[in-house]
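Lab channel / #folding
Pinned by the channel admin:
"Please post every new chain as: sequence first, then the structure tokens as a reply. Keep commentary short and put observations after the output so the thread stays searchable."

First post following the new format, from NK:
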Amino acid sequence: MNTKEKLYELDYMRFIACFAVMIVHITATGVEGYIHGSFPHKVTLIVNRSFKFTTPIFIFLSGVTSFYSYRNRDFKYLEFIKKRLSNVLAAYIVWCIIYYAAYIKLGYYGFNINEFIKSVLLGKMSYHLYFVIIITQMYIFGPIFYKLLKNSDKKIPILIIAAIFTALCAEYIRFKDSDRLFLKYIFFYMLGIYLTLEYDKFTSFLMKNKWLFIIGYAVIGLTYTVVSYLNMTIYIYVWFIFSLTSIFFVYIAGLLMKDVFKKYYSFIKLFGQSSYYIYLMHPLVLTLAIRYTDMNGILSITKRLIIYSAAVIPTTVICCLGFTAVKNYLKKKRKAAVSVASEN
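Reply from TO:
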């Protein structure tokens, strides 16, 4: 496969994952607010758990995009780290400042520079920012996994060992802030790396067994919901199987969508480019929506969910896509100016 060939399905996967993460955070209000066991509680729990694959999928996508360009060229660690961390951390720090300023304004925090620095380093400025800490660790240690897989002819056994190791870490490593430890997600990142090395084999396997994975996603998703509902001790293991099945399911969806919705790809591409910004921004909009319902005495959980959905999804998507579109336009103009200057 040509190294310049674009994996269009990844943008469709980001599109799905972005909506999924917003839905998960919005419906959390219903999961926590409705009476346990009531019909609305069961419905929101099913929706919430059905889309609760976002962290593994984003990590999987990072594994793909981190190493795809190195399939047929030399890997340079410092070049890799500089590019990856600069892309992730610059926006992260900006959004940490935005969240801190907003939370001070809302009265949640008082200004304390030491607490600010600690929150930035641990990804605690907002509940979703732990992901940035995990992905930063993945970028630092990821090249080890890449070399391991690339130089081995036993890639599947390595992945199986990584899967077992990851599941055990997720189950047994439990201390304060352990949810920010990359060891609990290694397998998903390595699976992304595997795809870059064995793309044809990976996609062929998925498409040959697509109905098995589609049905499996539905069955395991329902199982995951039941296990969550009953608070069973096998929760982590079921979560892991659900996460793996979801990656396969969403990848199949991406492969199918890139053919069916080909004429809309320019929009999907813009959405994919905005995915990180959408991830960073949407909880702030949700916080403001929660604040609005609290201040106006809206007690109905159903009304809250409607307001949150109407506020968070369109506001976040429009702002982030608009920002990316302007950014792309300015970048294009800058390139054109440099090209003209070089010709002269």
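NK: Residues 62 and 98 are 25 Å apart (CA to CA).
TO: also worth noting, The chain has 13 helices and no strands.
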